[in-house]
Records
---
Amino acid sequence: MNRTLGLLLAVSLVLGGCAARSTDQAAAPSPSPSSTPAPSPSGSKAAPSPGASVLTTLPSGVPKTTAPHEPTDDFSVLTTTGQIRLDGACVELVTDKVVWLLIGPPAAGLRAGQKVKVTGLPDPGFESQCTGSPFKVTTVTPA
């Protein structure tokens, strides 16, 4: 019983203090027009006082997004010629400028030392233990 009475007393003190503050603010005189700050020469507005409420508007609707796409969508079909090098299970095409890691079924039957012309797409998202730039092969022809 004493505990309930103490809690009730604490709540009434808190609410009473809030009510007293709000009546004090209501009884305070409103600022006269001469006491409001003049706008700055640059035309910017003065910051609101700490007691003033600031209204914020949020944009309506859902933000516009685009569908994700594969990184290979940004590459065009490439045809290059080079010599096949095998490193374990890795099939590499050595060209004058780049060593390509050939991936895909058309690259599976190639032998070391073959000179071939391959067509396909670079695939930078392909992860492998092999070295070389991943290249998804669509066709292989002897060079």
---
Amino acid sequence: MLMFFIADLARDPNLQAAFAEDPEHTMEAAGLSDPQRAVLRSRDPKRIADAVAREVERLPMRSPDPVVNWIGPVLHVTAVYPPAGVVGQVVKLVVYGTFFESAMQCSLVQGQTVIRGVVSNVVTGENSRMDVQFNLGNAPPDWFGVQARTQKAESTLPRAFEVERARVR
């Protein structure tokens, strides 16, 4: 498919070098059809985008989101509740996102400071969530990103959680 060839070309330096040296041979080796090669030869961004859009439209839909079908499931942190906690406390967050897996790790990150959380109750799939407990014992007051990780991917929602100073009574 043209869209996969373009995606590979964008991220593979060896394919880029081969294409620069002999575009015709590279397109043929990739199995592109004559019409697909003609589209690339045109160097017309609109024509190329239209051809890719037609390929996407023909994909079998397994999800209401066509991007998921094209590039596959993507781990993504979308929201956190509650958005703040106090230095010295233990706080339980609910982290929302997409395509979490059963074996998740979650941390609060700010510069060199990383506060690792204890993950429980992970709901996997397109509408994911997980419960994460953080000990804010010695955390510096600041805004932190919330970072979710699997063995294959990670996603960070920047400035998603604020560690607040303890109020003096």
